[in-house]
Specification:
By secondary structure, this protein is α/β, with parallel strands linked by helices. It has a single domain, classed as Flavodoxin domain (Rossmann fold, 3-Layer(aba) Sandwich), CATH 3.40.50.360. 41% of the residues lie in helices and 17% in strands. The chain contains six helices and six strands, in the order E-H-E-H-E-H-E-H-E-E-H-H. Strands 1, 2, 3, 4, 5 and 6 form a six-stranded parallel sheet that branches. The radius of gyration is 15 Å and the shape is globular. The two termini are 17 Å apart. The relative contact order is 0.19. The structure holds flavin mononucleotide (FMN).
């Protein structure tokens, strides 16, 4: 099973990167999983590239989506929503997402853990015809969760990540079987 971690911000000094890396490391420990890391920074085009107007970047993204069974989107909440660069990337494919699944790890420096981002992401994930996995991880006060070097300080996030992975892998497996059966 192939699972992709998407880091959804390209901001200089982004703290979400620490969480995306941690999630990726935990995912790699799961048996039978091929983990892949997608950094939105590697796909920046600054303009919307709809799937029906192909260009090399969007063709590459569509290929990745087809090969991936489920996504973990790690992203900060920006003005109660998702970063623009994440939306531009996700908009580069459409039919390729169908009958796959995605879970959200929302990151915030405040106390609300990016809950508003999760609501909007679930709408977006559904619009892309994926199943939104109902076990998001909300990360509050990100500056207290990791030190400057990205070392985890709040171990309480580990079981939350494991629970999220359990759920995602369950959905990804069932959906993969369903797609294979037609
Ligand atoms: C443009 C912008 C808008 C933001 N809006 C919110 C917000 O709506 N809610 C929130 O909790 N934090 C908000 N933040 C702060 C982020 O929580 C903070 O930057 C945190 O470190 C996670 O984002 P990062 O990965 O960019 O570091 C915002 C930050 C930026 C740059």
């Amino acid at each position: 099973m192939k699972i992709g971690v998407i880091l959804g911000t390209a901001r200089h000094g982004r703290k979400s990167e620490h969480m995306a890396q941690l999630v990726f490391e935990q995912l790699k420990k799961r048996e039978g999983v091929e983990a892949q890391y997608f950094d939105v920074k590697d796909y920046l085009t600054c303009i919307t590239n709809p799937p029906e107007e192909p260009n090399p970047k969007s063709e590459e993204w569509k290929k990745h989506v087809l090969e991936t069974d489920g996504f973990i989107v790690v992203a900060p909440e920006y003005n109660h929503s998702y970063p623009g660069e994440l939306k531009i990337l996700l908009d580069e494919a459409f039919k390729e997402y169908e009958k796959r699944c995605a879970v959200v790890v929302s990151v915030s420096k405040g106390g609300f853990g990016g809950v508003r981002l999760v609501e909007l992401m679930h709408q977006l994930i559904s619009t892309l015809k994926m199943v939104p996995v109902p076990s998001p991880v909300n990360v509050s006060k990100i500056n207290d969760v990791f030190d400057e070097d990205g070392k985890l300080l709040e171990e309480a996030y580990l079981p939350k990540i494991e629970k999220m992975l359990d759920q995602l892998l369950w959905y990804a497996k069932i959906l993969k079987q369903g797609r294979e059966q037609g």
